[in-house]
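Dear Dr. L.,

I hope this message finds you well. Following up on our conversation about the binding site, I have prepared a predicted three-dimensional model of the protein together with S-adenosylmethionine. For your records, I am including the exact sequence and ligand specification that went into the calculation, followed by the structure tokens. Please feel free to forward this to your student if that is useful.
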Amino acid sequence: MLTKKQTQVLDFIKAYMAKHSYAPSLEEIKKKFKLASVSTSHYYISKLQDAGFLNKEHNQPRAVSTVEAKQMIEIPILGAIAAGQPIEAMEISDETITIAKDEIGKQGKHYALRVQGSSMIDEGIFDGDIVVIRKQDVAENGQTVVAVIDDNEATLKKLYRENGKFRLQPANPTLFPIYRDEVEVRGVVVKIIRNLESQLDQGQSRDEKYVRKIDYSWDYRGEKTKSHTHGIHTYPAMFIPQVGRRLLETYSKEGDTICDIFCGSGSALVESRLIGRNAYGIDLNPLAIFLAKAKTTPINPQKLTKEYIALLSRVEKIKDNEIKRPDFKNIDFWFKDKVIVKLAKLKKAIREIKDETIQNFLMVAFSETVRYSSNTKTGEFKLVRVKGEKLEKHDPDVLGIFRKNAEKNIAGMTAFYKDAKKDTWTKIIYGDSSKDNGIKANSIDCIITSPPYGDSRTTVAYGQFSRLSAQWIDVFDDPNDASGVDNDLLGGRASKNLTHILSSDYLKESLEKIAKQDEARARDVLSFNIGLNECLKQAHRVLKPKKYFCLVVGNRLVKQVRIPTDFIIAELAEKIGFTCEDIIVRNIPGKRMPIKNSPTNIVGALEETMNKESIVVLRKN
Ligand SMILES: C[S@@+](CC[C@H](N)C(=O)[O-])C[C@H]1O[C@@H](n2cnc3c(N)ncnc32)[C@H](O)[C@@H]1O
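The resulting structure of the complex is given below.
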């Protein structure tokens, strides 16, 4: 469904193109319709693209063209739905909306509803929006559904099954959940069509400087994320491969050289190789570098299997007196003595493999074995030791854990070896992305990355997560250096004071609000953003003009203040020489990151950190 204004903009673009054979610029659209700013023109273009009337042609300055041939589908608007107290289920109306078929997936029947109320605002669903629903009578935990309760009362809520009951959860912290023994599901939300028109035409208020677009098609809920070498080792906040691939396919082309400036365990790099892009990866955590190399280096599976079988027979024969116990601080606190002996035998057998790539690949399974056989609680990002009876009973089957991992990894490598494009390369750099790492200026076709959410102390401690593995597999000359990693990552060292020259109103406002409650936390946030700004500058240096830089970021809570990192990045980047072209919001169904933490640092005071992330799409001017 196009609004009157959108139709006028489309007609203008068509007429302009007929005359000039190219599209009008955002500036020309702004002038023509007396819009408040070019981001408002951009908003209209995005709406027309979303509705399937314009193509995205990213590599041209006037980057739109009209589409006539896209398959459109007409969807009935069945009526209103309460995002608040349930109302009488859907009255019938004869309105329809027309949207591009590929925006809602190929499967299923759809209908649309107009939203009333504010109970779903944290999901980006506002009063007056239209939601497109795929008809189905079952839903997964956490999906936003049309639910009918109490004999024909309909409501829009997130659905959870708990202890044999259903919880209908509002996405608004001021409202309580509804519990019922029975709930009838009438469909799940697949798309939200925001009613932003009126706000945008009234000019540019602070909140409208950038527009966040909620797009559930980026969720990839329930999809397989461990194909190829993606599943060989856990790492915090990994890319969902589908997100990495979609960004690569949208913003780069085959044969391009891409870069992930916070490559972590290398998910984007694996996807690059699978779809024919060369790739640089940079990270400052040595374990991440080790994993990224292993994940992106194809190994002949026959050779690998042969070495693995030989390794298993060797390890059985190693005697206790032949092994060297690793020597790092607190080893006895984190590992039982007999576990240390078994791990040391396994390590010795792996080290005897002559082919270095095979040795490293099997060392990845060993690294996972270290994590699972240590005295730490699994499922934690920080190192937390199990206690009491649990610790006493802890008797891990070290070789069994290794075999399970190694065999799963070999299967992953078999698929990667088969599918990776042979004529591509991956270069992985151990370095700080806020500095020059030797990549040539204007040489990269696309940057795809996911920065940390904040400093390691209060968000994900990449270094701490990696420490025991890193100490066992010798990625440091001195294993005791492994404890220092987190201090070197973004935001690792708090700023001395709150004076800075960063040009972001959003950051300024967040810092002021946090500093009122806790100055030290505000300095942490500032230090992180100063580092991030330097990384944006380096990204600008290496990227070719007119090319894209996509960042998947989270807007974290600090002291109850939601920091709009997506908007901050957009503001900082625009000062450096990028244009922010899009901010897409996706749900995080399966990312390995702390859903709860304690921002107040009060034990038990849990607070949801993040269940959504933004994809900020920047383009170098
Ligand atoms: C969100 S994770 C990336 C995860 C990655 N996308 C994956 O799929 O595994 C962020 C990464 O940034 C790295 N990092 C933090 N500060 C850095 C810096 N200054 N330079 C380079 N890497 C840094 C961390 O070590 C971590 O691996």
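In brief: Confidence is low (pLDDT under 50) at residues 87-91, 196-207, 590-609.

With kind regards,
A. P.
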